[in-house]
Amino acid sequence: MKIHFVGAGPGDKELITLKGYKLLSEADVVIYAGSLVNPEILDYCKEGCEIHNSAYMNLGEIIDVMEKGVKEGKCVVRLQTGDFSIYGSIREQVEELAKRGIGYTCTPGVSSFLGASSALGVEYTVPEISQSLIITRMEGRTPVPPKESIESFATHQTSMVIFLSVQEIDKVVKRLIDGGYSETTPIAVVYKATWKNQKIVKGTLKDIVPKVKEEGINKTALIMVGNFLGEEYNYSKLYDKDFKHEYRK
Ligand code: SAH
């Protein structure tokens, strides 16, 4: 028996993959990240499924529940918010499982940065405006390597999504400007993307801070910044009628 890591998606209970849904509906034991996973998604669990909220557990306790389940021949699902490869603390879990000789499978989820771009209906990679996306966070209790400072990424002036930092939006904005973004750069804050109580706040680096404070947003939000949110755009070559390629001569 293996542990099944499943990405729950950003919130909307229908944004889990079919594969993730199947695993969840067959699970005997589910450990879910209660601080962020929409509990409605647990409606997919079968009757009698044993449910643990990892918000109240430490790493050792999580691994103990996994090990016990596997030893009893049960189907164990570890349900993580968004996708586990982004700030998912999956590495430490799989290392601990390895020590106990337990294998695992991974079923990806829709990360919240994708839920947020869908909420806004935007493309991160607008031709000639930006062709790269930086996913980062500001340091909090978890440090960030010094080479990955907000200022240093801001020098690229490409699309950025900043996780886990909205509680210090004023500091983030200051550091983006210090790094070289102009005050007119568009920025958006998406709170609980794809949830029923989703909120979207749009502005520029100059005026976003009071807007976010007014809405009382201080957690579960993403900061999106860059000219991909602006009025300027270009059409892609891919669908240009004069652009020939492998499939369209
Ligand atoms: N693995 C998750 C991220 C976990 S870190 C993913 O792929 O999305 C937790 C942070 O993610 C939160 O502090 C917030 O910045 C962001 N987040 C998670 N769900 C969100 C949502 N629905 N809307 C906006 N931000 C979200």
TrEMBL record:
<feature type="domain" description="Tetrapyrrole methylase">
    <location>
        <begin position="2"/>
        <end position="208"/>
    </location>
</feature>
<dbReference type="InterPro" id="IPR014777">
    <property type="entry name" value="4pyrrole_Mease_sub1"/>
</dbReference>
<keyword id="KW-0169">Cobalamin biosynthesis</keyword>
<keyword id="KW-0489">Methyltransferase</keyword>
<dbReference type="InterPro" id="IPR006362">
    <property type="entry name" value="Cbl_synth_CobM/CibF"/>
</dbReference>
<dbReference type="GO" id="GO:0046026">
    <property type="term" value="F:precorrin-4 C11-methyltransferase activity"/>
</dbReference>
<dbReference type="InterPro" id="IPR050161">
    <property type="entry name" value="Siro_Cobalamin_biosynth"/>
</dbReference>
<protein>
    <submittedName>
        <fullName>Cobalt-precorrin 4 C11-methyltransferase</fullName>
    </submittedName>
</protein>
<keyword id="KW-0949">S-adenosyl-L-methionine</keyword>
<dbReference type="GO" id="GO:0009236">
    <property type="term" value="P:cobalamin biosynthetic process"/>
</dbReference>
<dbReference type="InterPro" id="IPR035996">
    <property type="entry name" value="4pyrrol_Methylase_sf"/>
</dbReference>
<dbReference type="InterPro" id="IPR000878">
    <property type="entry name" value="4pyrrol_Mease"/>
</dbReference>
<dbReference type="GO" id="GO:0032259">
    <property type="term" value="P:methylation"/>
</dbReference>
<dbReference type="InterPro" id="IPR003043">
    <property type="entry name" value="Uropor_MeTrfase_CS"/>
</dbReference>
<comment type="pathway">
    <text>Cofactor biosynthesis; adenosylcobalamin biosynthesis.</text>
</comment>
<comment type="similarity">
    <text>Belongs to the precorrin methyltransferase family.</text>
</comment>
<keyword id="KW-0808">Transferase</keyword>
<dbReference type="Pfam" id="PF00590">
    <property type="entry name" value="TP_methylase"/>
</dbReference>
<dbReference type="InterPro" id="IPR014776">
    <property type="entry name" value="4pyrrole_Mease_sub2"/>
</dbReference>
